[in-house]
Amino acid sequence: MTLSADARERLRLIAGSPDPVAASSFFHAIHPPSFKRSAPEADPVREVWVEKQIGLYG
Prior knowledge:
The chain is mainly α. The protein has helices at residues 5-16, 27-30, 44-57. The protein is elongated, with a radius of gyration of 13 Å.
């Protein structure tokens, strides 16, 4: 099985955690927000980030 870079990083972070965690606990660590919190929801950078976050659930 071939893993994506995101999947490998997620597994690395889960394996290194001293406590039980959900995979989604690390989504922001893998792809941190790169926009201001005050950015509107329609901001193109925010929309790309949201798509990446949704993709990590897949």
